Amino acid sequence: MAFDKMELQKIEVWDGNRAAAQALRQAQVDVVAAYPITPSTPIVEGYAKFLADGYIEGEFAMVESEHAAMSACIGAAAAGGRVATATSSQGLALMSETLYQASGMRLPIILNLVNRALASPLNVNGDHSDMYMIRDSGWIQFDAFCPQESYDLNLIAFRVAEDHDIRLPAIVNQDGFMTSHTAQGVHTLSDDEAYAFVGEYKPMNDMLDFEHPVTHGVQTEEDWHFEHKARQHNDLMVKVIPKIKEVFADFEKLTGRKYNLVEKYDMDDADVCVVCMGSSVETAREVATEMRAKGIKAGVVGFRVFRPIPFAEIIDALKGVKAIAALDRSSPNGAAGTLFNEIAGALFNTDTKALLSGYVYGLGGRDLTKAHLTALFNELQANVDAGKVTTQLQQFIGVRGPKLAYL
Amino acid sequence: MSEIKNIKNLKEFSTSADRFEGANLLCPGCAHSIIVREVLNATNDDLILSASTGCLEVCTAVYPYTSWDASWIHIGFENSSTAVAGAEIMYKALKKKGRLKQPERTPKFVSFAGDGASYDIGFQWISGCMERGHNMMHIVLDNEVYANTGGQRSSSTPIGSSATTSPEGKKSYGEKRNKKDMMAIMAAHGIPYVAQVAPNKWKDMVKKIQHGFAVEGPVFINAVSPCTTEWKFDPKDTMNIADLATDSLVFPLYEIIDGRELNITYRPKNIVPVEEYLAAQGRFKHLFKDEYKYLIKEWQDRVDEKWAYLQRREEARI
Fold this sequence. Notes:
Order of helices and strands of chain A: EHEHEHEHEHEHEEHEHEEHEEHEHEHEE
CATH class of the largest domain in chain A: Alpha Beta
Structural class of chain B: alpha/beta
Number of domains of chain B: 1
CATH topology of the largest domain in chain A: Rossmann fold
Number of strands of chain B: 10
Strand content of chain A: 15-25%
Number of strands of chain A: 17
Oligomer: heterodimer
Strand content of chain B: 5-15%
CATH class of chain B: Alpha Beta
CATH architecture of chain B: 3-Layer(aba) Sandwich
Largest sheet of chain A: 7 strands, mixed
Largest interface: A-B, 46 and 48 residues
Order of helices and strands of chain B: HHEHEHEHHEEEHEHEHHEEHH
CATH topology of chain B: Rossmann fold
CATH architecture of the largest domain in chain A: 3-Layer(aba) Sandwich
Helix content of chain B: 25-40%
Radius of gyration of chain B: 19 Å
Largest sheet of chain B: 8 strands, mixed
């Protein structure tokens, strides 16, 4: 080994970006090809600096665009090694063509997506427009609510994506600034523990095996294209969920930190609940606890895995609840929100009597405050008491001007 | 260590082990397959190849078949250069880490792309690859048109050519702009080697490809690839058209070393008038109408001027 190990404290004070960069170092990623974009840049800067300081043996390529970054990641992954990168927002939009190519070619690249709004108007702050934009691109999507989870889920993502039964790329989402730039205590693994957990990269169909030349990225028309896409969907639906559960269980054994496909908070007897993603989950949990002190049985469900959609776990998590608020941090631009639709789809054929309403919030980094959530839980309780949704099905929270409500 | 492959004659060359199979879907008379075979036959080393979306790609890797007996990757239209650059980065990483399966081997990294995928949509990606200094070769199969999509103009399409998006008509002589000078642009990157090649001058091509494989760093090759379908000539005439291209000096064969030193590598004994090159192709047929004959004169003047410029550059050694 021609690199130095790093002595970490049991608990380090890291923001989400630093936590992700440290995970990439501990996974000893072979190649990072990247292009800078706020707020994800410190992740790849971190890798570059670790490399410069001799803490990684690998290659960093700072290329000329995000499209080229993912193109180089695809070439590197097809060559046969561990590959990761990071981006946000417009960068993801630019690389979106290649995201479909990476997944279609079954290359287990890890992408840290530091969630940020999409222009126009230009905005550098957190929302989930980018995460939603590429939701059908065939990538596994994890969601970290805080820096600890950014670290943990990166280590987990390599194990899931690189498994030879899976061979699909994976995204680790975290909220721009709110998670990526907010430092917290992060429980660490030693370099040896982390690397042992992630494991050696095991190449498959690697271009650099000259004895076994391989053709990557073929053409298929109406005779085969459908079968390829169906097989990929099948693997996402059938193989990925059990694999994630298995890796979550291994990670719990190692660290004591338990992850679930959907994270339930006070849901056992909840009457009303909020479903959301990202750093808002933590705010909602705090408010739910306060609501309970006021006599409202509130709970929170957070999507830990956004793709593949954990259908059965959503149904299970929302069983018995009387009113649900689906919170979408992206403008649906002429539709119901994505989480609203996912939840409605999951519950439609069940015997649930739950009242479902949707809320659009936090666009471009607008705060979701405890006051907003308190009002929201009260509104859900009012729905329960009335036995119907008392508002329109879609409302906007925290936007200035006259109240916006639709559907 | 890699060795320079010794090739004595055309027969030996054309019968050496193929890593690009004759079983492909390219048009009869397409120069792409000839150029690709000439490039691949120039070395015995392992090859990591890529192709941009285009004729070469759609005709050689249609599932469940492949024409490639070497590792090959296609991602999209614009990024064959970066695909191979990515593989080259991984090669360096794994070499450093001692994880190569055959560490004694010395692979060559080559990306192929058409002129549309190089001069236009992939321009930035190629520039990035050249600037970053990857140990790779980018080869343009330059047929001066988007042939795969049915003959639209690219920035390599020469003035006066009739393309579907710059057609000749009652009030137009076709393409209005001069071909982009990619050779000069690539040389301006200061890369170790830039060369223009043609399939009819196979010895010149092999020498340049072998030189390109021997240098450290990025190499750019522009290969004229006569297109029977879009240039509109009989498939049996591919090499005749290539001869006219090089011997009229419309496609002068030269190289630029380290972005500075220019060498002309082929001087036709008998320089053919540009008119003969144009007359052999349907895409220029309309130029022979009385009202457009001045364009043929202008063509000849441009070619003469460029040839004089190349000779001055060569002589000046700058």
